[in-house]
C-alpha cells in the first residue's frame, strides 16, 4: 500500500524560502510516502516568478523533511527552459519530474509546453503526473493512462467558483481509465487574478467516490492508502483506505 496525501499549505508569492519551510511542515504533518502540492506552490501562481533550480539552497528544509520522513514530495515551480514544472523532492535532493503539457493562454506568453506525459514508480505504484489545465484535456489523461498508471496525480490552482471542476475532472479521469485521482489545489489568494482560490484538495477512487477531502482554507491535507491495480487484483483486497487530515471537514 502507498500512503499518498494532497496538501495545500499557505503559499506566499515569490517567497520560495518561506514556502519551502511550510511545505516541509506539511510533509512532516502528512506522514505519507508521497505528498502532492498545488501548481507553482513554491513561488505562488506568479507567472513572472524567477525560475527555480532543483539545487537551490532554499529547498533544503523540504529536502531535510523528506529525508527524515522517507517522503517523496511533488511540488510546483517554474524551471529553466521556461516551463511550469513539478519537482520531485526526496532526501537526496530535488529534480524536475514533469513539465506541464497544456498551457493557459497567458501562461503561453512566457512558458513552453513540456515534451511528453510522465509516470513515476513509487513502491510498486505507478503515478501519472499532471498540472492544472492538463486535467481538463482528455488527450492528456489518455496518454498518461497509456503509461500504465495506477493513479493520476495533479497540482492545480482554481478560482473558488471553479471548485466543482475538481470533482468533475477527477471522476471523469478515474472512470475513463480505472485509476485513482489525487488533486492538490491551492487554498490561498495568489497571482494571476486568483483573489479567491478553491482549496478542497482531494483523493478520488476509480468509481468516482471522494475518499479524502481537505477544506477550503490553507493548511488542509487529504490522505489515503492506495495499492496498485495488480496487487489489488492478486490479493482480492480493496485498493484504498482513507484518513482525514488537517482542514478536512
What do these coordinates show?
- With 249 residues, this protein is of the alpha/beta class.
- It has one domain: 4-Layer Sandwich (Nitrilase/N-carbamoyl-D-aminoacid amidohydrolase), CATH 3.60.110.
- Helix content is 22%, strand content 30%.
- It is built from five helices and 13 strands.
- It has helices at 16-30, 60-69, 138-145, 163-177, 229-235, and strands spanning 2-8, 34-36, 72-79, 83-90, 93-99, 119-122, 125-131, 151-156, 180-185, 202-204, 210-213, 220-226, 240-244.
- The strands form two sheets. The chain has a seven-stranded mixed sheet with strand order 5-4-3-2-1-12-13. A six-stranded mixed sheet has the order 6-7-8-9-10-11, with helices on one face.
- The protein is globular and about 45 Å long.
- The chain starts with a strand and ends in a 5-residue tail after the last strand.
- The model is unreliable at 237-241 and 243-249 (pLDDT under 50).
Oligomeric nature of the chains: single chain
Report the order of strands and helices.
EHEHEEEEEHEHEEEEHE
Distance between the termini: 25 Å
Give me the count of strands: 13
**What average pLDDT do the residues reach?**
94
Put simply, the count of helices is: 5
Specify the CATH homologous superfamily.
Carbon-nitrogen hydrolase
Largest sheet entry = 7 strands, mixed
In total, the number of domains comes to: 1
Q: Which structural category do the helix and sheet elements fall into?
A: alpha/beta
Please tell me the CATH architecture by its name. 4-Layer Sandwich
Strand order of the largest sheet: 5-4-3-2-1-12-13
- Over the alpha carbons, how many angstroms does the gyration radius reach? 16 Å
Give the helix proportion (percent range).
Answer: 10-25%
